[in-house]
Specification:
- This is Glutamate synthase (NADPH) small subunit.
- Keywords: 4Fe-4S, Iron, Iron-sulfur, Metal-binding, Oxidoreductase.
- GO terms for molecular function: 4 iron, 4 sulfur cluster binding; metal ion binding; oxidoreductase activity.
- With 478 residues, this protein is α/β, with parallel strands linked by helices.
- Helices cover 36% and strands 15% of the residues.
- The protein has a 5-stranded parallel β-sheet with strand order 3-2-1-4-16, sandwiched between helices. A 5-stranded parallel β-sheet has the order 6-14-7-8-9.
- The longest helix has 27 residues.
- The chain is globular.
- The structure holds flavin-adenine dinucleotide (FAD) and iron/sulfur cluster.
- The site of iron/sulfur cluster has 15 residues, from helix 6 and helix 8.
Length: 478
């Protein structure tokens, strides 16, 4: 009988792929984790306890068959591991890199609860699909049969692209419209290269194009092409536009030059440093931290991406102001640790009261303490009166979160129903909206969320569209 390859968690310690030293990685935008060597991936996958009720799987938004692909990896059956992995996840190598695993699959790994350290699920998932790409197992889509129906997708982020992939697999004709010049949404222009190198995204975009997805880029729907025109051209339309309206700051001096939005700052950096684009605001220094004192306001993942980008651009100092403490911040603890190693200073329990100078030269900071819990149970930050101080700053980056743009107004379509937060009203399991043949997915429905949830929405929505198209075809044939 073959030797049991699994349950090695008692003898083998958890080991992440090696992380480049902070002094080295500060100088470039390359990813910070190396790839597992084959033997290490096999060894780490073999730590899985193959428990009867895999909590990792139920806490993965895609319900990936994690125990199965870990076992196949441990047995060296990598091509099969890849087949299982890609059957539930459109972009496994992307999720393996950027999912907050500590809150999802790995956060619910049973062997961690017995004190042995989680299986490194994300790193193995990344390893399997990176290997598949290397070995040529990832192929362009070739549908068994072409269908005549067409679907227009507005937004080429992970939600729209996951839907495009599934629709093409079913033989549907797909056109993806995006206002940017490259596909990928926040994978391309939001998330920095040190978390997700851009060729990982580009090769997926190319794979989709080779599989018959048509991209119409530099097309701002609502300006260059109307929503009604898109609806008229397709049998169904998916809205996958994400959320891009930045939350703003108040207080005296909040409009000063040098106070910039995180999305503008990160987009400029991604364009200039990863794609080598000519970006005037980067070259002029307006959106470039080189030689400057940088203050980032916010405690989420966007703030973490900004502080770490500023370090790589050569800022003289990078400080992050957050109004709660470390234990209560929304950003991933793993990213805070990475940022600290790279030289970022966190000023916990602080908030901006105003700004000095035109252009800005300082943030007036007030200190906070945590008071009684609010309705959500989170302790409310309270100002400590008389605690103000000035924090010198040449650029202040606002990373306070995102809200949806007003699509019904921008698109001249008041019938498109939105919630009181401005997100599009859609059924969570199908993406169906109140408008016939119009579906919505990803951040524009959920509010700012995660890549893995956008992928899940895209996949679910395609199931509903295929059902609806088939039902229509049956009626037409009667
Ligand atoms: C800085 C940053 C870092 C993040 N880091 C992580 C992370 O580490 N892990 C993680 O899981 N999630 C992360 N997220 C969240 C994640 O990126 C989003 O949840 C995800 O990208 C949402 O996917 P989406 O397809 O709904 O929208 P998006 O990725 O936002 O894509 C929407 C697309 O629609 C296009 N669009 C919008 N309006 C129009 C229009 N009118 N006409 C044409 N095109 C239009 C946009 O140009 C864009 O390409 C991060 C977000 C940010 C901002
Ligand atoms: S998709 Fe994300 S949550 Fe699911 S297994 Fe992969 S890393 Fe974990």
């Amino acid at each position: 009988m073959a030797k049991q390859p699994m349950l090695k968690f008692v003898d083998i310690a958890r080991e992440m792929p090696s992380k480049r030293d902070a002094s080295v990685r500060r100088a470039d935008f390359d990813e910070i984790y190396a790839e597992y060597a084959d033997a290490k991936a096999t060894e780490q996958a073999a730590r899985c306890s193959q428990c009867g009720v895999p909590y990792c799987q139920s806490h993965c938004p895609l319900h990936n068959n994690i125990p199965d692909w870990l076992r196949l990896t441990a047995m060296g059956r990598l091509e099969e591991a890849y087949e299982v992995s890609q059957s539930t996840n459109t972009f496994p190598e992307i999720c393996g890199r950027i999912c907050p695993q500590d809150r999802l699959c790995e956060g619910n790994c049973v062997i961690e609860q017995s004190g042995h350290g989680t299986v490194t699920i994300g790193a193995v998932e990344k390893y399997i699909t990176d290997t598949a790409w290397e070995k040529g197992w990832v192929k362009p889509i070739t549908p068994a049969q072409e269908r005549t129906e067409s679907v227009g997708i507005i937004g080429a982020g992970p939600g729209g692209l996951a839907a495009a992939d599934m629709l093409r697999r079913a033989g549907v004709q797909v056109t993806v419209y995006d206002r940017y010049d490259r596909a990928g949404g926040l994978l391309t222009y939001g998330i920095p290269g040190f978390k997700l190198e851009k060729d990982i995204v580009t090769r997926r975009n190319e794979q989709l194009e080779q599989g018959g997805v048509r991209f119409v880029l530099n097309c701002n729907v609502g300006e260059d092409l109307s929503f009604d025109e898109i609806r008229a051209q397709h049998d169904a339309v998916i809205i996958a536009t994400g959320v891009y309206k930045s939350r703003d700051l108040g207080g005296p001096g909040a409009g000063a030059k040098g106070i910039v939005r995180a999305i503008d700052y990160l987009t400029a950096s991604n364009r200039a440093s990863n794609f080598g684009d000519h970006v005037p605001e980067f070259e002029s220094g307006e959106l470039n931290a080189s030689g400057k004192k940088i203050v980032v306001i916010g405690g989420g993942d966007t703030a973490m991406d900004c502080v770490r980008t500023a370090i790589r651009q050569g800022a003289t100092s990078v400080k992050c102001l957050y109004r709660r403490d470390r234990a209560n911040m929304p950003g991933s603890q793993r990213e805070v640790q990475n940022a600290e190693e790279e030289g970022v200073q966190f000023e916990w329990l602080t908030a901006p009261k105003g700004f000095k100078g035109e252009p800005v030269n300082a943030v007036i900071v007030e200190k906070m303490r945590l008071g009684a819990p609010d309705a959500t149970g989170r302790q409310r930050p309270e100002v400590i009166e008389g605690s103000d101080y000035d924090e010198p700053a040449d650029i202040v980056i606002k990373a306070l979160g995102f809200e949806p743009e007003e699509l019904p107004t921008l698109w001249g379509c008041p019938e498109l129903e939105v919630t009181r937060w401005g997100t599009v009203k859609a059924e969570f399991t199908s993406g169906r909206t109140a408008l016939p043949d119009v579906y919505a997915i990803g951040d524009i429905v959920r509010g700012a969320s995660l890549v893995v949830w956008a992928i899940r929405d895209g996949r679910d929505c395609v199931e509903a569209i295929l059902q609806d198209l088939t039902a229509k075809a049956a009626i037409a044939a009667e």
